[in-house]
Amino acid sequence: MDHLEIHRKVRDGEIRFMDGVRLSGVKKSTFHDRQKKFNDTGAIYEIAPQRTIAPLPSADPWAVPTAKVTPAAPQPVKKAPSHGGKWKRFVAASDIHGDMQDKETCDVLWRFIDQWNPQLRFCLGDVWDFRPMRNGASNEEKSESMSADFQMGMSWLERFFGCSGEKYLNLGNHDARPYEWAHNRRGVERDFAAEKLTLIESEFARLGINWVPYHKRDGVIKVGHLRLIHGFHCGVYAARQAALIYGSCLMGHTHSVDEHHIPGLERRACRIIGALCRLDMDYNARQPNTLRQANGFAYGAINTLNGSYVTWQAESYDGGWLIPSDVVEL
Predict the structure, then answer these.
(1) Number of structural domains, the chain?
(2) Is the pTM here over 0.85, yes or no?
């Protein structure tokens, strides 16, 4: 009987110690039968009679039994505090372009606003198109009437801002054209621009809109940690350029949906929010780079105590819209 066999018999109770001598002093040759015998060290052992051993609960004979653990009952989720501040919902739209607005996209915006019920409303510019006033406009463009363009832009303003709450507007490069005419043109063109500006600014005042001109410095609105601009860059790097200069901001101008984050310890991200106008126009019919343009608008919430904010994007996909409109603060 070798040492492993002796250990097994001790474990199973087949061998009992009589004098406490270590097992290592036992030699296989000292055991001849199941009676009391002496080994060469003088130790006396008793060979217990054979008995049936009940199997261990585990298939592994060396396994250590473990206690049965009853799982705790699930606890209800508690809502975390809102950082001591009050979150205000906002909606941001851009690039309506007067009579060039996309009716389907605007209808989606109106339905969403009815559900979202924002306390803050941001328009990032280009409410009107003012094509005939563009520098370098063709003779055909110059011959167009601006009546429908002007009226549709005014009607859009009334519907978007004709409510209670805080209202902010950045003038865009198209909106700035009457101002350029009023300062740079002569005679009837200057008078025409001045008349339009009087109507426009009177409407801003009536609707209680906080507005800024189209300007790299003066044309920036800041609400909490979020800045609002119309935009001064174009192309695939427009969001990156705006983030580098203005930090965290929303912008329009490019008619695209895009986003860029600048690496750093503080948040610096620009989101381009898409356009409410038609994407296919006469001037861009042969410009394939404009295929990245998209209809859309942005929405989110701003904490009025610490200035933090969150933004989400509403965008048309394959002719449809799927807009999450419920917010749960955990």
Answers:
(1) 2
(2) no
